[in-house]
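Technical note accompanying the year-one report. For the benefit of new consortium partners, we illustrate the data format agreed upon in the data management plan: each record pairs a sequence with a structure-token string. No post-processing was applied to the example shown here.
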Amino acid sequence: MAKARPVRLCDTSLRDAHQSLFATRMKTEDMVPILEKLDSVGYYSLEMWGGATFDTCMRYLNEDPWERLWTIRKHVKNTKLQMLLRGQNILGYRNYPDDVVEEFVKRMVEGGIDIVRIFDALNDVRNMETAIRATKAAGAHAQGTVVYTISPVHDIPLYVRMAKELVELGVDSICIKDMAGLLTPYAAYELVTELKKAVDVPIQLHCHCTSGMATMTYLKAIEAGVDVVDTASSPLALGTSQPPAESIVAALAGTERDTGLSLELLSEIADYWREVKKKYDQFAAIASGVDTNVLSYQIPGGMISNLAAQLKQQGALDKYRECLAEVPRVRKELGYPPLVTPTSQMVGTQAVFNVLLGERYKVVPTEVKNYVLGYYGRPPAPIDEGVKKKIIGDETPITCRPADLLEPGLEKAKQAIAAYIQKPEDVLSYALFPQVAERFLKERLAAKTGVDYNIAEAAAAEAPRPYYPA
């Protein structure tokens, strides 16, 4: 009889599932009642922080994201807590100075994070180095991430080389991040097979169901020896989310990769989420089923929804198909960046401008110009010379690690928000999202003291945002 090699499951219900299905709007109060039951399942980890949760907590939910972390850690005593970190972007949409990255990682690990999944939108390992070192120094598990996409320059040898580079930097595991649902079952089998040959660390697979292939992709990856797969409780699965945990557990039952998890317990948890989900119907994604446009245009489901929303606001929904077709053209000209935050927003916005203005690159957002100048990192392929000339003229892109040009930011943030600091983590919240955090911190203090934060004598000025030239 074959030796048992159980597949481990990471549950994304507390983070990516609701980020994908209803715009990250789940409140902590709806998580707390099910935490202890989740902790008893035997999951490899619970992904419950990072991504868009930090910004959304302050911007929309009037919650402190640090309090969410501490609350979940208090209730989850046995299972590892996992979060998603955008490398040098941390949880924002631009690069931050090294001192901010290092302090942020230190504080979140002290707060209870066990596994840090670190990625860069361009797969530029230079943008991941500081976060990896900080995670290791803090004593947590550093998971290096390969962002999966399809283009003439993205192939399996490239991903294998990147994985080797990450392992040399000291990561404890490798994640394949298929944010758009582009990874086919047989490509997954080959990729996992080659990674298992090349590196001696666990391999984890993260897919979205946007294209309808993810569950099949998981099974082929499991056949190839993948160690961990990301799943969600069934009411929070499928669509633009992850495959359902129950389906994977049932499919593997009685095989050498049997997860050993209880379907009965998972069913009880699903019953809870089924009721919670009803509260968030108003935020549900426009397209919640299979969307094969992702295969034609290689656009993640969330990006497609945002594109439609942008055009609707402009009264130009009739230009939707034209904009969809423009996205891959822009992506090619910009050197095939993977379409993941923040590059997906850049490419999508540029495509909309190109179509609505009737002249390509007539208007170029500052973020796109900074990307072409190298301030986000190294593009996967050379940028089209004609497009580059249109965007930056005779300026010369940088070739160094972008964060090397940034001055330290912690002390500036501390000074700017001094009047409203109640704990050290407040400084980090402000350093990442100055305007959103300042409003949140002022309102929190006003609720506590009864003082109108708009007329308080010690009004905090917004710190200069460490950014690159326009």
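Partners are asked to follow this layout when depositing records. The chain has a mean pLDDT of 92.
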